[in-house]
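Q: what sequence does this backbone want?
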């Protein structure tokens, strides 16, 4: 196992990490020496991750429930200490039918990912700021730059997530500036058209965030494209 990496010894949380992408990324981080905590809401999928990926920690949590996220943070602190990194993978797509097809039910569903992002970043903000290399990243969509009528709900929810992440980035920079120190935490947006086929590329890009100084990558948007 390769452990001569900047993420070696770090504790990294994958929110919504039971997907194929989450498993690929968890494997990459684990093999680089990180303590990886995969958080999901489905007990069966979490059990599958635990069986597939030896050494990866799993935690069940409804990330849309702020009290549940606070309890998750307390459990992680008790077992592993503060976290150094978070990759937000909670997502899903609903759309089609032009503007008339953008239903309230679909919008409510899509906003769950944004709600989860708000909850988890607020709960772990102090951890990331206290770390000497705190890293937050989200997976957004190229649809934010070119929204279509049939995906208006989806693009709007992703745009909200990007705005929130950029606000987190500003908070990191301000805290460092107010303390008279160099920034140590960074928040980054990854944009993809589709994650299919980019699972490992995303994992390696996230891993690479620990190779760069926080000031160089904070509030940066990185587009990942397939071959």
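A:
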């Amino acid at each position: 196992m390769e452990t001569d990496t900047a993420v070696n010894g770090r504790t990294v949380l994958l929110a919504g990490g039971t997907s194929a992408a989450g498993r690929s990324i968890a494997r990459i981080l684990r093999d680089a020496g990180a303590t990886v905590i995969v958080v999901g809401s489905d007990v069966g999928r979490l059990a599958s991750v635990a069986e597939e990926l030896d050494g990866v920690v799993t935690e069940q949590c409804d990330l849309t429930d702020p009290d549940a996220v606070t309890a998750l943070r307390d459990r992680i602190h008790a077992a592993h200490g503060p976290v150094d990194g978070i990759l937000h993978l909670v997502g899903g797509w609903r759309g089609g039918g032009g503007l008339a097809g953008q239903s309230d039910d679909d919008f409510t569903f899509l906003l769950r990912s944004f709600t989860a992002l708000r909850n988890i970043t607020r709960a772990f903000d102090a951890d990331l700021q206290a770390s000497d290399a705190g890293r937050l990243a989200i997976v957004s969509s190229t649809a934010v730059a070119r929204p279509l009528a049939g995906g208006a709900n989806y693009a709007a929810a992703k745009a909200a997530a990007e705005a929130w992440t950029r606000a987190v980035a500003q908070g990191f920079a301000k805290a460092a500036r107010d303390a008279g120190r160099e920034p140590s935490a960074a928040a980054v947006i990854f944009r993809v058209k589709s994650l299919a086929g980019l699972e490992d590329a995303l994992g390696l890009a996230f891993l690479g965030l620990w190779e760069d100084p926080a000031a160089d990558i904070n509030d940066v948007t990185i587009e990942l494209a397939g071959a």
